[in-house]
């Protein structure tokens, strides 16, 4: 590491120690991360997604907005400034391929997960729901030499196709993640969202081409939902997909949606219609959302919400907050979930969450 890099990494750890709101993020396809900080004033707290209309800043939105989990907007003095860091990589395929087969997973699920799975699967098999996403948290002790900025750098190097971020505000605490899923990106008259669902490990580091019925159906529910929600706002989109896409050592099926907007000041309304998509919630949407809140057995907080830079007059890059962790003094809380259909099997779904958790776990030295 060159001196400049070390001082950039140290700067990030200093913001955390001094409890200064900041976000550092790396957009897929870009080499250099960007850093933004808010030195003066307090971050803005928002309690309804539509109040993001016309706002500019780094957004950290929860799965469910509450008094203790508001939407937080970091309003920096300047938009994200390049933060030189050696995050060069030999390619995600190669790295992911190297780790495959060497990592071990907990093959037996916890009693708590099994109990939730049965509650969820019964509601799918009696056709109350078409799809439900069941997630869980994993708490691990923090090593004394744990450095959030070093993990951020390692994630940038390893996961070139994902959005990597590390952020802190007094209201959210410290979060770090590597997510493959755009909720809304674009600028001027060119906007994008994606339907991302269905999971398989990479095969010898390459994208799997064969996808079974369950995975295709799971993703198709998300694509149909997005199409419907966009149309409900009079937005006509063009589509590309579904096709297999990279996400660390995993692959998901993805459909891209491209569209233009009449008024970029109403991005909050659009986000309110999209979030939470059936990639993290379920169908029918409102009922599935309530069911998850009542039956999942823990609070997702900012996991499966969304994060990123919002700017109606410039560029916006917002991502669903997946493959992430909440960093506290003594512990790290990792999150992962998976889409269940009536045909889902307990052991397969558990293993899928184990593999998703590995996205963060493999970055942390034990
Ligand atoms: C809910 C998560 O992933 C979503 C995104 C892609 C594939 C998914 C799946 O196959 O279940 C999930 O819908 C997660 O990573 O916690």
Automatic annotation (TrEMBL):
Top enzyme class: isomerase
Superkingdom, taxonomy of origin: Bacteria
Matching InterPro entries: ADC_synthase, Chorismate_C, IsoChor_synthase
Key words of the record: Isomerase
Catalyzed reactions per annotation: chorismate = isochorismate
Enzyme Commission number(s): 5.4.4.2
Region (Disordered): 78-99
GO molecular-function term, one example from the UniProt record: isochorismate synthase activity
Domain Chorismate-utilising enzyme C-terminal intervals: 111-356
Family: Belongs to the isochorismate synthase family.
Protein name: isochorismate synthase
Native organism: Bacteroides faecium
